[in-house]
Design goal:
The chain contains 14 helices and eleven strands. It is an alpha+beta fold. It has a single domain, classed as Beta-lactamase, CATH 3.40.710. A hairpin with a 2-residue loop joins strand 1 and strand 2.
Length: 337
């Protein structure tokens, strides 16, 4: 495996854990500008794919057809906490499409507002599909099917016309042929695709480029603007994408994916990086992400201070005693660093 150590943990000065992975920094043309490990490491995109999965809906004028707000465009890209603001937007999207939440086929899980923040749901709390972190994406899927008269019952089937359109547009966005995308089924039951990190980063460099993109400019501009304008809807309270996009002051388009994937694009630069931590350790992923921003020179002093907690350098025990250290140990290689 062409992976490298990205983050190390020590306890009492002795190495205890290493978190390996790879990073690819790419421009909108697909040129690899810097990397750690293999920039073409094959990785499932997981929820980083959501902004690209929205392309058929965006390209067909879906948001204007249904009167979706910028907030609801952000929800197309969201891995949200299932907070009331998220549920209300998902419900409104379904109502605008003339649908009930039971049409959603994303399944149910305990919302992130509880799991992410280590809270207990109230005893009388009733979960339905709107609380699923992917409900906004699925509401967009359904709206596209309503707009084009496509069947609703099987909208997540890989052979459904919607999913075939998504595969086509995702491939175009990342610079691959559709048959080169390796398919798997995501946690929300929709098709997801594995691709080299450099190609995933290229998709986000184009997304961040917005209207400058010659093929998807209008769609990318609307999606990236919605994400950076409404980061609370894209993620939620206490989440890293919220922290990154707020720190980025409208420039950074950030999206995490399950199992150790993170992508961040810069609007002003037309560049992006994609990262995979192979053991999916979240604190390591967060620390490595901030370190990439540092090494690329994307941060000023205020941003460094704001994101310092996400480096989580000191490891504290239950009594608050500092018992170890978490440190990034990689250097990006390439002409630009």
């Amino acid at each position: 495996m062409q992976l490298v150590p990205l983050v190390e943990l020590t306890r009492g000065g002795t190495l205890e854990n290493q978190h390996w992975g790879a990073v690819a920094v790419v421009n909108a043309h697909g040129t690899v500008l810097a990397h750690a490990g293999d920039p073409y490491w094959l990785s499932f995109s997981r929820s980083t794919l959501k902004a690209l999965q929205a392309l058929p809906f965006m390209q067909a004028g879906g948001p204007s057809h249904f009167g979706f707000s910028s907030e609801q465009v952000a929800m197309l890209c969201a891995s949200h906490n299932g907070e009331e603001m998220h549920v209300a937007q998902a419900q409104s999207m379904l109502e605008k499409a003339g649908l009930d939440y039971r049409a959603l086929k994303c399944g149910c899980h305990i919302p992130g507002i509880f799991t992410q923040l280590e809270r207990q749901p109230p005893p009388d709390f009733v979960i339905d599909e709107r609380y699923n972190n992917c409900s906004g994406k699925h509401a967009g899927f359904l709206a596209h099917c309503v707009q084009h008269g496509l069947s609703l019952e099987d909208y997540i089937d890989p052979q459904h016309p919607l999913q075939q359109s998504i595969r086509r547009d995702v491939a175009r966005a990342v610079g691959l042929a559709p048959e080169d995308l390796r398919m798997g089924i995501d946690g929300c039951s929709a098709p997801n695709y594995a691709m080299p990190l450099a190609h995933l980063a290229r998709g986000y460099a184009r997304l961040a480029s917005g209207a400058r993109d010659s093929e998807f400019g209008g769609s990318f501009a609307a999606l990236s603007e919605a994400m950076t304008s409404h980061p609370k809807l894209v993620s939620g309270t206490g989440r890293n994408d919220l922290a990154l996009m707020q720190a980025g002051r409208g420039d950074w388009v950030s999206k995490i994916g399950a199992d150790g994937v993170q992508v961040v694009g810069s609007k002003s630069r037309g560049e992006a990086f994609a990262m995979k931590i192979i053991d999916a350790n979240k604190p390591a992923l967060f620390a490595a992400t901030v370190e990439v921003l540092q090494q690329l020179g994307w941060m000023d002093d205020e941003q460094r201070a704001t994101l310092q907690p996400w480096r989580a350098q000191d490891i504290l025990n239950a009594r608050g005693l500092m018992v170890g250290k978490r440190q990034t140990v990689f250097r990006l290689q390439g002409a630009m660093v």
